[in-house]
Amino acid sequence: MIEQEIKIAVIGLGYVGLPLAVAFAEHFTVVGFDINKHRIEQLTAHEDITQEVSSAQLQQTDQLTFTAKAADIESANHYIITVPTPVDANNTPDLSPLINASELVGSLLKPGDTVIYESTVYPGATEGVCAKILSSQSDLRLNHDFFLGYSPERINPGDKTNTLSSIVKVVSGSNPATAVKVDDLYKKIIKAGTHVAPTIKVAEAAKAIENTQRDINIAFMNELSMMFHELGIDVLDVIDAAATKWNFLKFTPGLVGGHCIGVDPYYLIHKSQEKGYFPQLITTARRINENMSTYVCERILKLMALKQKHIVSAKVLIMGMTFKENCPDLRNTRVVEIVEQLQNYHAKIEVYDPWVDPEAAKQLEQPMTQNPQTDHYDLVVLAVAHDQFLNSDPRKYLNKGGVLFDLKGLLPEKWVDERL
């Protein structure tokens, strides 16, 4: 197939799909599809609430259109699926968005088409679940009538340095020829280069362990934080000292939220248990990180008691709500758990986060404020390391005798009553 004939449909226009659609539109005709009509209206008006793509980027090409109508992507011959892959309340993989997207694409599939998945899954899901849906919906055969690719996303929300084109892209295909074809396609937009995995399962597993490795490393730091706190040692001072060795990995303790690190390990755990192996290290790391919000609240309550401040009816300011710094992403943010636990003690909570879209905050049903009051709060918790907070002095929000807890180790040590 010559390049001029390639037409791409990107299914899912979130943090992953939108930058991908914009990048491919520099070379091909691209239609971005999303079931969220409000999202389509925003993008058509050249607005991106994720702040991953600028208004200028959305206007710079006439090869990119957006739609919520399936009929508008029927003429595509390359479908790239970038929908979320969350877990349910029991931390079991929830493939429903992926299944729905596969059913949609399967109903449109034509002989010769290629379907590429970017969503994070457990090894075997793309071929074992998605390909079967595509075949059943289209009556077409894999590697005979249509072809399958897998190239796991590596988007880091809010990161303006490690962007789509500057991160090496892992690619794979349902057969060697398709792998080459998928590789050639992504080479058009990935300046950092590509890595062709030998199989789709290898590519799936590689993505899953990337975030699982981070989860384990953060869990180690969280356990050190708990241990050294009991020993009366500042864990951040310990980490700074250890980091002077060339091969020390400088992770820091904290809450683990977001769409990947707190989710992907469960996909590996699920598939491994299904096959009869019960992973211990990964499971323990998840348990430690899942419990960090409770641990933080316990530390805060003990600190308040030490300072002779009552948490009941206390005026509390939480600085930051997103799951990470300098990013509007609220997915799986653990700060919500801290708010809810403090509310159980009837504390009067206000959350201040200049990165959060007001409409998104309403969906979380959190008590947001855009103008924290000075000399007002009994407790201020710095929960997210936004740049705006780095350049401010949160002590101005405290009333006389108020307590400042630094969850991120962002503030000068002499300013805070305690830091994680």
TrEMBL record:
Sorted alphabetically, the keyword list is: NAD, Oxidoreductase
Fetch the InterPro entries from UniProt: 6-PGluconate_DH-like_C_sf (IPR008927), NAD(P)-bd_dom_sf (IPR036291), UDP-Glc/GDP-Man (IPR017476), UDP-Glc/GDP-Man_DH_C (IPR014027), UDP-Glc/GDP-Man_DH_C_sf (IPR036220), UDP-Glc/GDP-Man_DH_dimer (IPR014026), UDP-Glc/GDP-Man_DH_N (IPR001732), UDP_ManNAc/GlcNAc_DH (IPR028359)
Name the SMART domains for this protein: UDPG_MGDP_dh_C
What sequence ranges are listed for the domain UDP-glucose/GDP-mannose dehydrogenase C-terminal?
317-413
Q: Which GO terms describe its biological process?
A: polysaccharide biosynthetic process
Signal peptide positions (record): none
Is NAD set as a keyword in this record? yes
A GO molecular-function descriptor: oxidoreductase activity, acting on the CH-OH group of donors, NAD or NADP as acceptor
Of which family is this protein a member? Belongs to the UDP-glucose/GDP-mannose dehydrogenase family.
Spell out the protein name for this chain. UDP-N-acetyl-D-galactosamine dehydrogenase
